[in-house]
Input
Amino acid sequence: MKRNGKYAIMSDEAYAEMLRQRGEHLKELYRKERRRVLFGIDQKTRLRVVRAPREKTNLRHRLRKRGYVVGKMSNDVLVTAETMRSIKSEEHARRLGMKVLFNS
Output
């Protein structure tokens, strides 16, 4: 048993068991939250369980570099006067479910 000052710290076996239980609890919590999101029910925690595919996040970055306005956590892509347009990138964005909007 390890000691920290005058307080006894748990044994190595007890510590390993605590970590195992914590991991199991987190796995179950994430599984439940993913199911809630899948069925359209409000989440009970602030865990981030839904992530955009890497392809989509990379495209959003490339669009911003070309001058498009892409909101955070949004599927709307705004074309402004300063935008260096790319028809190929716009089509790719549409295929990934993003909307290309024009600023009047």
